């Protein structure tokens, strides 16, 4: 489809096709990946200047895997954890970011993300499809020590950014301490040390007035 | 140092210290990583709307490693390539991004980045220091098939974004086709297929008027 909007992408794919037909499909996916840089999360980067996007978030948590691996509940292959985290949000290119405290959006998240996975990974040659889809499925199901630790890091990272920005996203969305502890409790399973840190951080944020106390609610 | 600017970081480190002294050093590094999201490159993201930052660039090239590994000149461990690319630009937190076409800045790059590596990786406990510093050194020296392929991807990615944005960074900085081919020639060593693609892309960009022909020069 030679519309003006995606014409450079089509042309680039045609150039790749001259080299190798598989390369054309892989390159089209590489170009799609670029769009994750425009998917905005609710969390602000550490200096509070702007919202974080899902591409840089994915980099941050993948790098955290290399640094924090010894805090995993069970021994993990840290490179594998990083790989799962590199891939875990790719589906947001189609499905958008789903705020962890948004109960309504959470209810439709699995279905939206599964459709996105079908389209995005489905366009890859089989070898790459299997690697990327496999990593995404492993992360989603939490069926390995690596996936459980990866999921813990994905929960901890926005808590750190919220702390650094004096609760910016919590305050913007009326989140309470009870809700933060409820939603992020899976950190305990993947990384007990990091859960101890997270609990301390919530307690301190409450003491500083960045996060209201309060029971778990369904949140906004 | 309890200055207002970094007080939340200090407080966060103190909370981590209560859990584990090593965690405090690792967490301080994790917080420093966040600053890579504010290091801007010369290249625009694919829709042309803004400059790319080094954190999302690092994510993009690391994901490319998983997708394009079979185009490496020699067989590579794609997870290792991704790891090298996750870490390769961390030194820019201190040293800033150095434009590949800026000859003057390139002359001081190694020294600036080595100092940055000493400070940033040097603050980590030994186990993590060795993993991250090792990855960065391997990438810098190009002393493995993985590093040579990683370096090829790091060169190809901005060429793709330049093509998608009709030569935005090339035009903004007066870069010629001869210079693009000269500076990016290392792609040929790490990934011959991708070099064939890159050459086709340059030729097409010239034909479309996005990139002036011209001999290699020292550029701006």
What secondary-structure arrangement, pairings included, does this model have?
The structure is a homodimer of 220-residue chains.
Chain A: H1 7-19, H2 21-33, E1 40-44, E2 51-53, H3 54-68, H4 78-87, H5 92-95, H6 103-122, H7 126-141, H8 145-164, H9 168-172, H10 177-183, H11 186-190, H12 192-207
Antiparallel strand pairs in A: 1-2
Plain-language structure description:
2 copies of one chain form a homodimer. With 220 residues, chain A is mainly alpha-helical. Chain A is 65% helix and 4% strand. The first copy, chain A, is built from 12 helices and 2 strands. In chain A, strands 1-2 form a two-stranded antiparallel ribbon. In chain A, α4 packs across α7 (126-141). The longest helix of chain A has 20 residues, at 103-122. The N and C termini of chain A lie far apart (40 Å). The model of chain A has no long low-confidence stretch (mean pLDDT 94). At the A-B interface, α1, α2, α3, α4 and α7 of A face α1, α2, α3, α4 and α7 of B.
What distance separates the N and C termini of chain A? 40 Å
Order of helices and strands of chain A: HHEEHHHHHHHHHH
For the secondary structure, the number of strands of chain A is 2
Oligomer: homodimer
Greatest interface and its participating residue counts: A-B, 65 and 65 residues
Number of helical regions of chain A:
12
Short structural description:
The structure is a homodimer of 220-residue chains. Helices cover 65% and strands 4% of the residues of chain A. Chain A has 220 residues and is mainly alpha-helical.
């Amino acid at each position: 489809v030679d519309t003006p909007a995606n014409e450079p992408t089509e042309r680039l794919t045609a150039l790749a096709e001259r080299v190798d037909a598989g390369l054309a499909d892989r390159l089209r996916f590489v170009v799609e990946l670029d769009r994750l840089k425009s998917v905005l999360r609710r969390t602000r980067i550490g200096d509070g200047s702007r919202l974080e996007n899902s591409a840089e978030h994915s980099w941050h948590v993948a790098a955290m895997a290399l640094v924090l691996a010894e805090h995993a509940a069970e021994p993990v292959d840290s490179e594998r954890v990083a790989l799962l985290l590199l891939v875990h949000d790719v589906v947001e290119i189609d499905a958008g970011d789903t705020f962890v405290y948004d109960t309504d959006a959470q209810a439709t998240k699995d279905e939206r993300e599964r459709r996105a996975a079908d389209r995005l990974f489905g366009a890859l040659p089989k070898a790459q499809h299997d690697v990327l889809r496999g990593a995404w499925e492993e992360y989603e199901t939490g069926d390995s020590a690596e996936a459980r630790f990866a999921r813990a890091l994905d929960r901890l990272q926005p808590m750190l950014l919220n702390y650094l920005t004096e609760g910016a996203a919590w305050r913007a969305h009326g989140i309470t301490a009870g809700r933060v502890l409820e939603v992020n409790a899976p950190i305990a399973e993947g990384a007990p040390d990091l859960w101890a840190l997270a609990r301390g951080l919530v307690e301190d944020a409450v003491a500083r007035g960045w996060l209201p106390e309060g029971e778990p609610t369904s949140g906004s």
